């Protein structure tokens, strides 16, 4: 395991990559992969083809954001194809390291960050698809589990995201934080049940995940302006009795 993170580009040849989160993965020419600090890993070229490898290591507070937010240990491979700009950027870093002189450290850091940015851009189309799938899965889980507590941190881990990343991406897609979205779903279902059934307020509060009917009533009134029974009476003015 490494203390620093690394970006590795295989411009020719083939081989394999292994890490604890992924198991063994095939590598072909035009593939980059991320080696995460503190994550057990190995990689090697195929005996038949060998490979041409370029790499750069990054460490420090700015780099930590890459490992925490921008790349995922569960998805370390990035197919970049024949990207001459990226190959050139890796070569520039290698040349800077080889002929390093006073004043080059800042340029070396800038070039390394440029590589990180270029690789991140390559992940965006696949990331959007994966995000949409994960957010859709989260929304479906909420709809199916309104009657019980939901552990968003556990769900985020199940889709290979930290909770902070999941929360940010969920809000980007829906306009609301996960818990706000869940409360909105609970409010909508409670409103439907009050309008379309004769279930008691206590039973409805249970069905939408509230353990306290008094808290449910306060929550409902805060968001609709009326109590649950008042909402029901307004929906059925001739058949319901006003509680106020």
UniProtKB/TrEMBL annotation:
InterPro entries: AraC-bd (IPR003313), Homeodomain-like_sf (IPR009057), HTH-like (IPR037923), HTH_AraC (IPR018060), HTH_AraC-typ_CS (IPR018062), Tscrpt_reg_AraC-type_HTH (IPR020449). SMART domains: HTH_ARAC. GO terms for molecular function: DNA-binding transcription factor activity; sequence-specific DNA binding. Residues 136-234 form the HTH araC/xylS-type domain. It holds the Pfam family HTH_18. Keywords: DNA-binding, Transcription, Transcription regulation. PANTHER family: ARAC-FAMILY TRANSCRIPTIONAL REGULATOR (PTHR43280), MMSAB OPERON REGULATORY PROTEIN (PTHR43280:SF30). This is HTH-type transcriptional activator RhaR. It comes from Neorhodopirellula pilleata. The lineage of its organism: Bacteria, Pseudomonadati, Planctomycetota, Planctomycetia, Pirellulales. The gene is rhaR_1.
């Amino acid at each position: 395991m490494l203390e620093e993170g690394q970006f590795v580009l295989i411009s020719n040849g083939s081989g394999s990559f292994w890490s604890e989160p992924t198991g063994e993965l095939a590598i072909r020419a035009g593939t980059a992969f991320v080696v995460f600090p503190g994550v057990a890993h190995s990689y090697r070229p195929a005996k038949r083809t060998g490979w041409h490898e370029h790499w750069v290591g990054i460490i420090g507070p700015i780099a930590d954001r890459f490992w925490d937010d921008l790349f995922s240990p569960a998805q370390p491979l990035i197919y970049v194809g024949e990207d001459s700009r990226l190959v050139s950027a890796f070569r520039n870093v290698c040349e800077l390291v080889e002929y390093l002189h006073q004043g080059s450290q800042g340029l070396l850091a800038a070039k390394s960050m440029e590589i990180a940015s270029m690789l991140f851009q390559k992940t965006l189309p696949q990331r959007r698809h994966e995000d949409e799938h994960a957010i859709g899965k989260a929304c479906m889980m909420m709809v199916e589990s309104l009657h019980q507590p939901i552990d968003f941190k556990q769900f985020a881990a199940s889709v290979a995201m930290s909770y902070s990343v999941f929360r940010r991406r969920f809000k980007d897609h829906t306009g609301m934080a996960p818990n706000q979205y869940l409360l909105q779903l609970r409010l909508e279902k409670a409103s439907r049940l009050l309008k379309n059934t004769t279930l008691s307020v206590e039973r409805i509060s249970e069905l939408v995940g509230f353990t306290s009917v008094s808290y449910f009533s306060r929550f409902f009134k805060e968001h609709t302006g009326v109590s649950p029974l008042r909402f029901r009476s307004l929906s059925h003015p001739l058949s319901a009795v006003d509680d106020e």
